[in-house]
Design a protein that fits this description.
about 15% strand; binds ligand 7PJ; TIM Barrel; alpha/beta; 8 strands
């Protein structure tokens, strides 16, 4: 079983108090930030090796883009993209793998192939998803989103974004625990950019400690996201590295246990620096 506390202790040798780094591996031709770059198996394999060398603690594999406006991918296409990659990694490396999917059947096959974390932007609300994870020993990241990738950025509105997101996550956690998923297998994530505008994202980030003080590890994913572009006067995706690193470091300082990032080496360096100087 993935024991996040044990994994944190390992990284604490090199960066005490700082979060695990989850490297993003998009196996999609339409991912917003590296569109098309990682569909070729040779390119994917190189990218895996690079992220491991750079110090990634977890690899997060996704076969369907969930960025705003993204098209849904048929089940078989998603399976054909992600399962061979999981098997390739499992045969060669001893790194925890998470699968970024909301589809129960993808979860089931990925679990069968040996992944360690189900990372679900839909918080296990797909039919059978809770039962699927409960029947295994993998961990799960429950993320909040409002709406679907097709419509979520149209006009997101909340009375109190922090209260609403927190209530949703805690409700999903209780549902999972009631179904037999042990509490120490559950990770929570406010879901930056998923049905949230800049003011919502800022409010959630500013109040991040309220989430990390809940009784679950927290995952934060803001890498290269639109909110960084918006804060930095509209910079394009390729120019969001510095902003992404700053946000990842701050997420760690606010108690996040995992940061989900595209740029592993810069993030690991920054976390190591801060860990020694704080
Ligand atoms: C997230 C994710 C996130 C978790 C994506 C992107 C869009 N999973 N999958 N949290 N974002 N847990 O990387 O910009 O924020 S896909």
């Amino acid at each position: 079983m993935f024991d996040i506390q044990k994994e944190l202790q390992k990284t604490h040798l090199s960066r005490p108090g700082m979060p695990l780094v989850m490297g993003i591996l998009n196996v999609t031709p339409d991912s917003f930030s590296d569109g098309g770059a990682f569909v070729n198996p040779v390119v994917i394999e190189k990218r895996v090796i690079q992220m491991i060398k750079e110090g990634a603690d977890i690899l997060d594999i996704g076969g369907e883009s969930t960025r705003p406006g993204a098209e849904k991918v048929p089940l078989q296409t998603e399976l054909d993209r992600v399962i061979p990659v999981i098997e390739w990694i499992k045969a060669r490396f001893d790194i925890p793998i998470s699968i970024d999917t909301y589809k129960t059947q993808v979860m089931a096959q990925a679990i069968h192939s040996g992944i360690t974390i189900v990372n679900d932007v839909n918080a296990l609300q797909d039919e059978g998803a809770v039962e699927c994870v409960a029947a295994s020993d993998v961990s799960v990241c429950l993320m909040h989103k409002k709406g679907t990738p097709q419509d979520m950025q149209l006009a997101p509105s909340y009375e109190n974004v922090v209260t609403e997101v927190k209530a949703f996550l805690l409700e999903r956690a209780v549902t999972c625990e009631d179904a037999g998923i042990a509490k120490n297998r559950i990770i929570l994530d406010p879901g930056f950019g998923f049905g949230k505008d800049l003011s919502h994202n800022k409010e959630l980030f500013i109040c991040l400690s309220e989430f990390s003080s809940l009784d679950y590890p927290l995952l934060v994913g803001v890498s290269r996201k639109r909110m960084i572009g918006e804060i930095l006067d509209g910079v394009s995706v390729e120019k969001r590295l510095h902003g992404s690193v700053a946000a990842a470091v701050l997420a760690g300082m606010k108690g996040s246990s995992i940061v989900r990032v595209h740029d592993v080496a810069p993030t690991v360096d920054a976390l190591k620096m801060v860990a020694q100087l704080i």
